[in-house]
Each structure stands twice: as structure tokens, then as C-alpha cells.
Specification:
Blueprint lengths: L2 H9 L7 E5 L2 H8 L6 E5 L4 E5 L4 H7 L4 E4 L3 H11 L4 E5 L5 H10 L4 E5 H12 L3 H22 L8 H14 L4 E2 L4 E4 L20 E10 L2 E10 L5 H20 L6 H14 L11 E3 L6 E5 L12 E4 L2 E4 L3 E4 L2 E5 L4 E3 L8 E2 L1
Helix pairs in contact: 7-8, 9-10
Length: 358
Amino acid sequence: MSVRDRISELAGILPDEHTAALITSPENRRYLCGYACEDGIVLLTRSQCLYIVGSLYYEQARELARDCTVVLMDNAESELLDLLFKYDIRCVAAEARHITESRLSAYHRALNYTDVQASDRLSETLCAMRLIKSRDEVELIAAAQNIADRAFERLLGRLRKGMTERSIAAMLTCSLLECGAEDTAGRVIAASGRNSACPCAFPTDREISDGDFLVLEFGAKVGGYCARMARTLAVGRISHAQEEAYNAVFCAGHDALGAIRAGVNAKVADSVARSTLNAWSADKYFTHGLGSGIGLEPCEQPVLSQKSGAMLRAGMVVSVGPAVYIPEKYGVRIKNMAEVTENGCNILTNTTSNLIRI
């Protein structure tokens, strides 16, 4: 779906020419117009798509935003009223999932004659539109994943015992940027030893040492699109129990990927992973969902978990990341990216899932 088609489809949900959609989230602004900046809004009517930015981003927006009219407005909340008068807009629907109460109140005060409402329908429509990726979107995600793979390979040649988690995370961040990422996709996690048992650990000054697991979770962003992966490395000699935990997660990931295809409920892959972990007596240590969709955000719909009711469809791109976390001891996580197809899935992550030792 082209940018023009996206704009046209979203405009089609507006009830009349006197209603406009107000798009505030950077991800949805990029999705609709191919461009996002820190501060800006998109005002969409049935016949107009206006990208409103301040002077800091005006020239950049004029160059990069597509199929829309770029409008310079340094104080949108106060100046937007004139624009609504110009186009006879009497009702504004804002993204319910992204606009804050304070921002909504500010719009109510500034646009006193206009009915401004947080719209669940607008948010749900945008979410549904973004579920299925176009070939261009998949190619951007694949390019981001390729950068993540190369950054990881570059890091492996530099890892040594005695390095701190913090220094490893910093090296990995630099490696992602040096390999071509425009930014990291989500936070870079480097957790070793007991710290690896925490799913969202922050890097510390702990030094990696013999017998540790080192969990690395990280990602790259290209053209606004994200890819994210996780690998667990063995530092020196590890115990038989650690080997077993790694093998359990490896097999769970392999089996879960084998269960992914169009027409399957998103909870099935999660159930398959848990069943495999159960065979290794490790399912009780898997404390979160298997994965989620990925695209303009590192974590978006659909969710691959026991509570998911979504059906997988061809063109979705998902992350698959089984894990075990043994409290106070260690953790293992392996995350791969996959594009859902009619007959299975196309794995986008190129790095081996076999245990790597440093």
C-alpha cells in the first residue's frame, strides 16, 4: 500500500467533510506521510492531508514528507483554529491511544468552537492498517535486521572476559550505528550472570566472567522501521544445567517458528514454545509472551501470547523470543524475526541460534 493509498483509506473513515483526523504519534505520521519528526501533527480531512510542523523541521518536512501539504506553524495549539476555520472543520478526532489528557485539554481550550474527541476508532483503524506490511516495509525491516546481524558479528570479535555489561552495551550501540542504523530499535540490553535472569535488565558495571551467560537483546532502525533480536552467549565453561536451559530455549524457538503461518491463531506459537519448554521441565521459567509484531515500533500488534485472539496473516512480521529465567542464577533468551507467509514463515534473522562461546 502506497502512502497515497494509506491516506485515502484513513480519510475514508471520516463521516463527512467537516470532520478531520488529528495524527499526533510519530509512528503514524511516518506511516501516513513517510516522515516523522519530534514535534509535528498531521491534520487529515476527506480532501486534504496537512503536515503541520514548526520552523525547526519545516524545510526537512518539505523535502521528505510525501503526498501532503506541509504547513509552517510554530504554535499549533493556538494557530490551528485558523486552519480549521479555513477548511470548515467542526469536529476533530484525535488518536485515543497516543494523545495525553493534558494535550487533549489544551486542544479543547484552543479550539473552543470545535468538538475535539479522543477517537478509539481512529487508533484501531491505524493499528489494523499497519498489521500487514507492504513489500517496501518488509524490505526496510529486513535491512534493519541485516544491520543488527552485522553489528552482532562485529561485536563478537571484540568481546573479552572482564568487560563490563555497560561497556558491551556501548560497543553494541556504536556497532549498530557504524553498520548503518539510523537509531537503535528499543533499548540495548547486556545482562550477565545473575543479572541475565531479569528480562529487562539495565547494563551495569558487572564484569563478565567464566561460567556466565551473557544475554544481549538489541535492534536497529532503518527508514523508521525496526528489527530486534536476542542472543545468549556462554562465557568460558558453563554447567550442564546451563547447557540444558539453552537447549530448551533453542528447541522452543525452533518449534514456535515452525508453527507460524497464515490462518493460525497468534497464541498457537506461544503454546508450542511452552509445550517444548515443558518437555525440558523449563516452562515455569518462561515468564512473558513469546513475541509480538514489529514494524514502526519494536513491539506492536499482533501479540504472540496466551491471551492473544489475533489470527496471523501473510505479510505480518513478528518477533519470536522464548526464554527461561532462573531466579538468582541466570537467564537465556533467543529472539528471531519472521515474516508470516501462507505456507509458514520467512526467517529474517541470519545469525545462528546455536550456542556461541566466548
